[in-house]
């Protein structure tokens, strides 16, 4: 007997116990199904088996479902495990339903979504161009004041470097960062400042206008994304977004249910 046929018999049996006044209608629906063949004998044999093993106590059947060990749907998950999968899925779905969907047509939502997409496109190009320009700055002829640039850079960063925190992305002064230079006078790069170097491409100090324009665009984009995240946190929508723990687990369980073609044991045989 196929797993699907067994499942339908179990479904009809449970409903007949829970709704004894509708047993005739339930059996008629079961026996006249066109996708599989079930006989009255099949149903009675299942009824006798359940009674023999005391799987279901008729007095306790209302609003309950039996915990029947076995593999009636798949040989990968037992009935009790199938039930746990659906209960876990429902638990995560309830979290999403309770929070509600974010207002995807709101201006802040669209701005944040567009900003994230544009950042993913522009940021790698910006970083590559920035690294190339640093190489150019390093290759420029040293200033006669080069020995002083390290200590001056340290004092400049000490006094003014903290102002960068008022931006979402851009910097007022562009330093390389610790470990990016061999020169101990620059703190091994921590206060190796681009504005203290002459750019061979422009003859001016610091980065090119093209790179700084990209930085300004990224500053605006990161501002839009920050606004998006503030609204998400304010509305409690974090767990409803792709990549959250709740959405990741919900997607995993729904994929499992779909791939294994599992049926919720609590929902078998809904009578219209």
Overall description:
The chain has 2 domains: 3-101, no CATH class; 107-248, no CATH class. The radius of gyration is 33 Å and the shape is rod-shaped. With 272 residues, it is mainly α. The chain has 8 helices and no strands.
What are the key terms here?
0% strand, 2 domains, mainly alpha, single chain, 8 helices, 272 residues, rod-shaped
List the helices and strands and how they pair.
Blueprint: H1 3-18, H2 23-31, H3 40-52, H4 79-99, H5 107-139, H6 146-160, H7 209-235, H8 245-260
In short:
By secondary structure, this protein is mostly helical. It has eight helices and no strands. Helix 1 packs antiparallel against helix 2, helix 1 packs across helix 3 and helix 4 packs across helix 8.
Shape: rod-shaped
As an assembly, this protein is single chain
**Alpha plus pi helix count:** 8
Mean residue pLDDT:
77
Q: Gap between N and C termini, in Å?
A: 26 Å
Largest sheet: none
Number of domains: 2
């Amino acid at each position: 007997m196929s797993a699907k046929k067994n499942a339908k018999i179990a479904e009809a049996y449970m409903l007949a116990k829970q709704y004894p006044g509708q047993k005739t209608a339930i059996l008629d629906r079961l026996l006249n199904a066109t996708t599989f063949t079930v006989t009255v004998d099949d149903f009675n044999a299942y009824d006798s088996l359940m009674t023999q093993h005391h799987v279901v106590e008729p007095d306790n059947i209302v609003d309950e479902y039996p915990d029947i060990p076995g593999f009636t749907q798949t040989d990968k998950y037992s009935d009790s495990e199938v039930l746990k999968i659906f209960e876990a899925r429902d638990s995560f779905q309830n979290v999403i339903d309770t929070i509600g969907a974010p207002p995807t047509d709101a201006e802040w939502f669209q701005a944040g979504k567009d900003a994230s997409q544009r950042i993913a496109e522009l940021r790698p190009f910006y970083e590559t161009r920035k690294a190339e320009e640093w190489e150019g700055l390093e290759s420029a002829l040293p200033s006669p004041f080069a020995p002083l640039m390290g200590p001056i850079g340290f004092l400049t960063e000490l006094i003014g470097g903290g102002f960068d925190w008022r931006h979402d992305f851009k910097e007022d002064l562009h330093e390389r960062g610790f470990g990016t230079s061999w020169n101990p006078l620059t703190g091994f790069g921590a206060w190796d400042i681009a504005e203290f170097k002459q750019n061979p491409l422009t003859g001016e100090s610091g980065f090119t206008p093209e790179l700084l324009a990209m930085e300004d665009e990224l500053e605006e984009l990161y501002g839009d994304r920050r606004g998006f995240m503030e609204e998400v946190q304010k509305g409690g929508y974090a767990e409803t977004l792709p990549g959250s723990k709740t959405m990741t687990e919900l997607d995993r369980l729904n994929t499992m249910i779909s791939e294994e073609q599992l049926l919720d044991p609590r929902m078998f045989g809904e009578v219209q």
